[in-house]
Write a structure and sequence with these properties.
The chain has about 220 residues and is mainly α. It contains eight helices and no strands. The radius of gyration is 20 Å and the shape is elongated.
Length: about 220
Amino acid sequence: MSDPSTFADFKLQEKEAKKKIILQAAIRVFSEKSLHKASLREIAEEAGISHANIYRYFQDKQSLFVEAFLLGVQDLTDKLDEIIKFPPEGDLLNNSAGIFIDYLNDNEYYFMMMTKFMLEGGLSKQSLQSLNQAMKDFLDKIETIVQIAGGKDNPRYLTHTFFACLNGILISFINYPGRSREELRQHMKILSHLFVQLFKDGVRTGNYNQYIPPSLI
């Protein structure tokens, strides 16, 4: 953020800084409690501001949840976009899976928010539209990566499978008892490598098409 040149600039930067503090507090609270159970008073207390002050920045709890959630989705989308534009050395699918696993390990608050929302839902139609568009953009990036890797037939099914299986690995092991964070991260990366290899084998042979019942399409 550049130094303000006028009082108006200073006020705008101050407002953005306060908004960021509220968003970070909301992410922490929403990662521990669902949208239904979390309260704006709890978020205000976490942020160190009055309850009434939140309404100067956000219309309601749902709009705060959506904006907090979208920060993580957009950040992860940008990371995938970068490796599409500037592919790193090595396998693109494995690199993508690694980015996904690492990001949600390093930003576990977002993962917990995503998990609670997927299990419980509860957003209004308007809020869902914003969230759905962001998730569509994110899945579009994964679909591009899948297609680059050779998944030309039914790429959306492949994309959803890729996303769901990586989420399953995270849900199963991100807080598995008896191991350190680094041990769990390493374990999840091994599992993601195994999954990606099976995924690539299916894409390469095209055998996955026979497991999609025509009656369900």
